[in-house]
Amino acid sequence: MSEPLLSVDDIGRSFGGFKALEGITASFEPNKVTAVIGPNGAGKSTFFNVLSGVLTPTSGRISFKGADLTGTPQHRFVHLGIARSYQITNIFPLLTVHENVRVAAQALRSRYDIWSHRGRLHELDEKADAALNAVGLQGRRNTTAKFLAHGQQRALEIAVALVADPELLLLDEPTAGMGPEETKDMVALIERLAAQRTILLVEHKMKMILGLSDRILVLHHGRLIADGSPQHIQADPEVRRVYLGQSHGYA
Ligand SMILES: Nc1ncnc2c1ncn2[C@@H]1O[C@H](COP(=O)(O)OP(=O)(O)OP(=O)(O)O)[C@@H](O)[C@H]1O
Ligand SMILES: [Mg+2]
């Protein structure tokens, strides 16, 4: 096993007295796709919030490329190489596709570089175009974001995350609300992105996860109940029991 890119050691997160995450320990090798699955309310989004700095863990430690990130402010995460997309679509609907990505590129830079030269502004445009290119949206660059199809809006959110050129990309239900065709396109996009970076994704679509993932983590009531290859997870009796009778089925 190569040196882990990301490690979490005994991570917990409580809200008041409620433990949304408890005792999560795992390491992630670079350039792999890992799916995080589990029933509704299992703690998947909370886990991603902790991994992306949105929430500080109430216990345990996170390290990324060997550096301790526990308690690091959220804006630092993206500079260090961790970017994410959200479960609920999160774009500026009245800006164009290109503007959405450009704003993200600018936000990354402005705190260090208030007096931007024309040349630098051009650089931001190019960065935004490269991110749109990576998700196949360059042809829609001047479209107002609200007019995009749902699947394209989800791809745009990924472009926004890509402007930081992250080594670790966290995708929270990237195919939420998509039909089979859009899901197929998203799977192809994730496969392309995975060639150059480490991806963690939360998903409910089991067939997709089994085909796409190198590894699967299963959360249930905030605890990690299984961690292994798709074959291992499919055969795990506890995972089967947890999924039995769930609306998101295990087929
Ligand atoms: N900010 C918060 N304050 C209080 N409780 C929270 C907060 N965020 C999450 N929770 C609770 O923590 C638990 C885990 O929520 P989380 O959103 O992580 O689940 P999930 O696995 O992503 O579920 P879903 O599949 O429905 O998206 C839930 O019981 C939720 O109500
Ligand atoms: Mg969630």
Describe the protein:
Helix content is about 35%, strand content about 25%. It is of the alpha/beta class. It has a six-stranded mixed β-sheet with strand order 6-7-8-3-9-10, with helices on both faces. The site of magnesium ion (MG) has 3 residues, from helix 1.
Mean pLDDT, to the nearest integer, reads: 92
Rg, alpha carbons: 18 Å
Neighbour order of strands in the largest sheet: 6-7-8-3-9-10
CATH topology of the largest domain: Rossmann fold
Structural class: alpha/beta
Question: Could you provide a short overview of the structure?
Answer:
With 251 residues, this protein is of the alpha/beta class.
Q: How is the topology of this model organized?
A:
Blueprint: E1 6-15, E2 18-28, E3 33-37, H1 44-51, E4 59-64, E5 67-68, H2 74-80, E6 82-85, H3 97-110, H4 118-134, H5 150-162, E7 168-172, H6 180-194, E8 198-202, H7 206-212, E9 215-220, E10 223-228, H8 230-234, H9 237-243
Parallel strand pairs: 3-8, 3-9, 6-7, 7-8
Antiparallel strand pairs: 1-2, 1-4, 4-5, 9-10
The structure holds adenosine-5'-triphosphate and magnesium ion (MG).
